[in-house]
Amino acid sequence: LLPQPLVERGIQCVGRLDFDTTGLILMSDDGQFIHKMTSPKKNIGKIYDITTAEDLTQAQILTAITKQDLWQSTPLHYAAISTNNDQAAVIRAFLSPLISMTDRASVISQKNMWGFTALHNAATYALGANTLVASFFDGLTTTQKRAALTVYDLRSRTPLNIAAFYENSAF
Question: What pTM was estimated for this model as a whole?
Answer without folding.
Answer: 0.61
